[in-house]
Batch of 2 targets.
Target 1
Amino acid sequence: MAARWSSENVVVEFRDSQATAMSVDCLGQHAVLSGRRFLYIVNLDAPFEGHRKISRQSKWDIGAVQWNPHDSFAHYFAASSNQRIDLYKWKDGSGEVGTTLQGHTRVISDLDWAVFEPDLLVTSSVDTYIYIWDIKDTRKPTVALSAVAGASQVKWNKKNANCLATSHDGDVRIWDKRKPSTAVEYLAAHLSKIHGLDWHPDSEHILATSSQDNSVKFWDYRQPRKYLNILPCQVPVWKARYTPFSNGLVTVMVPQLRRENSLLLWNVFDLNTPVHTFVGHDDVVLEFQWRKQKEGSKDYQLVTWSRDQTLRMWRVDSQMQRLCANDILDGVDEFIESISLLPEPEKTFHTPDTDHQHNSSHGEEEVLKEDPLSNVLEEKKSDQLGLPQTLQQEFSLINVQIRNVNVEMDAADRSCTVSVHCSNHRVKMLVKFPAQYPNNAAPSFQFINPTTITSTMKAKLLKILKDTSLQKVKRNQSCLEPCLRQLVSCLESFVNQEDSASSNPFALPNSVTPPLPTFARVTTAYGSYQDANIPFPRTSGARFCGAGYLVYFTRPMTMHRAVSPTEPTPRSLSALSAYHTGLIAPMKIRTEAPGNLRLYSGSPTRSEKEQVSISSFYYKERMSPRSARRRWSIQAINDFPSLLMKSVGKGHFLLMGH
């Protein structure tokens, strides 16, 4: 689709304002421009008839400003200046600072009023804290969210009153204000800094992120590992925000580049080219917001503020809005309108018993009475991601080259037969797909003859297959190929375990000796043995610091080598406790007979209660005679409490009984 170009409808210049931020109130009547010396209040219905000023005395520019989004509090707005938030009240043509919020220790990066509660305001800062304030009690924040890194953006969810999102460099964290101790979800969204966040106006779980890495990404935070879609751009993106109509998105470039001064309007269902370009600013756009739609009008207005010190308003008519619409959804709207014209069926009343019987006997019919709009959205989303939309398509796209697997598919019967051969084992399974698959309806798995694996292994495989299929169908994704790969992988792992057990010449089949201790013994000290990639710590080293000094660390002077220099260093941190407990024998012991190693290497070489230290692998304490005598004395008191010790000088003690 070719891009359309346009010029602004209204242009107002504020040459002396030096404003760095702009906001439009929820009623669409006023806009505030935030400068260092004054705040300018502009009447959007008559922008040329002058403006009002609110004086402010500060050496700091305003970082962010926003009107309260609730009609009853529409005369309040908040502005951030360095480490504080000023709450302004604008009424009857005059404004003043009502109160100030102070709590952050570093500069405030962003603020956002709550969508559902008019008294709540959230602020983010470089000091790594996100504060939620209640303007009825401004002494301290009501909720404090602590993150490791400073936050550059914070936005309330537009559909969930308890949910908000923050950006930290290239990452996004999803928070629940009822659980402030930690984020509920984490998205590694971009490789560069995120400049903008925006929640979808109609979906609780969808948000868009714009970044320095020249892209806008769309996310469902329930699937944090993979973005839904991506909009690649030529330059870093400063802001990307959804439109209040259809499926539009407006983007603007990073202000520091000074190469592109226009705004781009996109259709999120077709990101190949923008559907409209707003051209007119002579310098980069600092802020843009939508004005509330006037009663009786189908047109919207986009209000923009640029570094060229001009405020511009752009009219977005119904024809431009249709460019952001989805053709399929338009057809659905017409279909819903035609349904609404049909006569209503006669209403019947049922007792609870008959209702229960009706629900149980006609459950399949109720499944079909779903919202057609949601079904179309899911189909459109699946089509965008290149996923099969029918079972027949899934069968046609299945990879038939998976090793040791033969699949016989019957789309008419909505079933398939899977045969897997691995070593001496054979598995044959019947998979049946329900009519609603894959829309939150998992297939069923049943073993059929000839299947040679044990019943225990059957139960394990069934559990793995059910878990895998449920994870996929919850996202309305096909699951047959992932289940096949899991089946082959688990079966091969089972066969390999059997082969290793049968080929071990050191195993004692009828041994009465208790089994050797497992690695679980030392997990209390280091958590788990999943740290094979963590290198073994150093006990000495040196680095030059920024001031030009050489900083070094080494072992204490009271310690010396405990092992020979030729003794190999452990490969990972978890090997430390294994060496000390005897689970891993030193290299010189490994040269002994394999049978002796198997029988005796499990005996611990030191007490499990003794603290294992990293340096003790390399060094052991050099104990002086005095410290040895003191240690013996302490041990004597523990072992013989009926003895009393009397010091006779020079570190000597006399034992006396009583």
Note: The first strand starts at residue 4 and ends at 6.
Target 2
Amino acid sequence: MARSCGVAGLLAIAQLVPVAVCEVLSVRTSPPRDLEASLANWNLGLDDAGAPPLAGQLRVSGCGSPAEDLNGALALVDSASCEAGALGAVFVHYDEGLAGLALGDAEVPSIRAVVIERSPGLELLSLLASQAVEAELKLGKLISEDAYEEQFIFRVDEFHATRKENFLWHQYPSLLPSSGRETLSARLMPRLAVPEGWFSRPMGFVPLFNPSLLSLQDGTFLVALRMSNGQGCPSVRAARESSMDTRICRNELVLAHLGEDLAVRSHVLVEMPMLRCRFTAESQTAGRQFLDEVYGPMDARIAWGDEEIWVLFYAERNVCEVEVERGMHAAPLHIDWATCNGWYLYATDAAFLPSQCSWLGSGDPISLESCQRSCEAQKACTAFTFREGVACELRQCSERPKVWPLVGWQSWHRGGDQCLERAFVKAEELLAFPAAHGVEKNWNLILGEKLRLFMEYFIEPHIVLTASLWRNDAGIHLARLEQSFVSRWPYEVLHGLTNVRGGFCCLRLSDELLQIRTSQRRIGGDDDEENLELPPGPLLLGAGHLQRIRSPFDQAPGDLSRFRRQAKSRTYHQFFYLLRASEPFDVVAVSSEWCITINGHFSQHWAEVLAPGEEACESIQFVAGLALRGSEVVVSYGINDCESDLLPLPLSEVVAMLKPVRSAVNVSLDELEMI
């Protein structure tokens, strides 16, 4: 091995402060590794000049090495004076970690250069004595337009670095397999027109997240999604176009109609009364130091009431010149339908049944547009089944044709069906609930009656509020809001855990659907180990989550270096629960925690990074909707405040995850320090 020039040489690289950019140096060892690499602005001029990327065989550079030894290679060095002949330099940091890098006052390197942490750098030095190593700087794999940063991915070794006692029921969370389909947000994104003025240039992907799902009588679905310029998506952060850059947070509520196969049929933006909040130096509120204005509804839930659909959402408004109201709002959601004009995607990964659609011949399969034109050229053609470059089958279909599964195919229909034409909230029907604690978010509608709403305010302790309404020709008005019921889960579920948060409630399950009249043993530490049964149905299914702040421990198994880089970032893990469907709406069953394996558009890079057999979830998943589809529960969830997806689960699997509990009812909040 060539002689090293000494670690102190790193201090004399350049009189520059590293920009806050985190890149990945991908090193092809066994197993492959991705190393965090710190960049100063050394490479910006080379980027502009079109220089080749930092990639190639890694070799050790010593002060006495002949220049030809480094031709066409990357130099692993710890001094700027040893770069001659190399395409790029990989410097080993003089100390552990990358924080507080002091770069001295020497000249900027004339070749591409990055810095890696000392520990992996020394490991690479030892490896190079016996094998050749390839390395590549993957530009924009951690902070980029096409991949989540490391902190937004939760790998399974993080579970095992934590004691079981830190999870519900003393059980490690389950990893539920994702659908594997293209995400709901990715399917909807090409159809959306981003409101004018949101961005200075077109965005490839706009945050579209926290979807709330509702089933309709004909077997189709409505889903409400939050569209925002928040910093959730890497594409928005990298473009410096997020609300943190513009200081204006913009939001719209998107309502989409989904078929029985969950394909998008139509969508509209929900028309809302003006929801705007402006912050000034005189504003009497906390927590908005980085925003000047906030517009629109956020994190909506849609739910059935008595013969009407309600929408609940969070919004911020100025109530006078200096006072700000940041809280929950609710209103009936009005929807107008119309006969679909033109083509719409009827089903994905499916083909029309021949018994429902007569075959008219084959069209041009070169593109979707060419297949549509082929159908339009035949007067009788009302539908087609398409696979790009393979087939375009023209058909005449009945009004509501059935389909059969066929992976990779799309079924398109023309007119005749119902599409969303308009969705709106009336200003005179919009209820604004008081924000008693400064900010009120994530309330759920348990039961909606004509003159009364039962709402889940808090999940543990389980607090139910009742809103009494009165209606007249002038609209809907809030007559009274009061706390009605308080109950607490048994200790053996939580054993001291806090930060239990609500997600979505409630999906009504009949006794027939539950089909679990046999007793299940309660897991806990009681000496008598009491056997419990669920009360008679119907019951109400909900989903909540626990938020945790990552805090690595030195004795934890796994990648400690990665754990430390992720420190102080958030993770959400979900759980199911059941409520009694009548007063006092107490919790009667709770599952262990779970998350859904990665499926997001921006998670695909990590599927390549994970070792064979390794599993991971996105760090922040937020269940905002549950709906029935036959014998399945469809879970709608947000991903990292950026994307939306759906996961159908067998109802039997969901029920099997739930453990009956007996909540304490009529609890006094005066005894609870957390409220």
Note: The first strand starts at residue 22 and ends at 28.
